[in-house]
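Notebook, bench 3.
Goal today: get a predicted structure for Lipoprotein-anchoring transpeptidase ErfK/SrfK from Camelimonas lactis so we can plan the truncation constructs. The sequence was checked against the plasmid map this morning, with no discrepancies at the termini. Length recorded as 236 residues. Pasting the sequence as submitted so the record is complete.
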Amino acid sequence: MITDREITAADAARNESLADVRPGLLHRRAFLFGSAAGLGALGLAGCATSDHMSHAEAARVYGAVPQEKFPIPAVDVSKVDPKYYRRTVRYETKEAPGTIIVDPGSYYVYRVEDDGTATRYGANVGRDGFRWSGDAYVGRKAEWATWTPPKEMIKRQPEAAKYARGMPGGLDNPLGARTLYLYQNGAYTLYTIYASSDPESIGTGVTSGCVGLLSQDMIHLYARTPVKTKVVVLPA
């Protein structure tokens, strides 16, 4: 649930320098966790092709992204279980290459490749009572999107009403650097795959059904995901 202190922190963050941003990100990400409802340098990093990524390699893959509209700080990789680092894995599926498969029970998101492998990303997922499963597709995508709390959230948590007309994109915005909006039958589901700046959330169930990847992973996935891409959310 969003607290008054968290909303105050979100407002104050707009006046912080980049060096001061990271300590407050956990509170700012709480907005998304309570709602119903991320190339360049990363291309040099690619995906690990073995079963292990060293701490040094992880620090490079999840390093700062200064060329972004809002420069993204490096991830403190010591706060992420190494099993959630991005890597290429063997993955047997009948789904076509390019399909995104969300496995909330294991806290992974897979992007199916064309050689019997998948790019695997660690994720945060919906908490108890907010999980869902089924087929969807990417209906639209956005960089540094405006976040607007759904009416259902405002009713449940009135303190979010101050953002009823939207919170502009930025480091303090819950959707982060990149967002994939999930649709079914032409309608927005209110669920997204978004960029999280909270490393400690990866591998946990904390959202209201949305799926979060570390910002660097989300930028990597976003660049390879066109609109209309199929998304399969497995049962937890």
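The chain has one domain: 4-233. Residues 138 and 182 are 5 Å apart (CA to CA).
Flagging this for group meeting.
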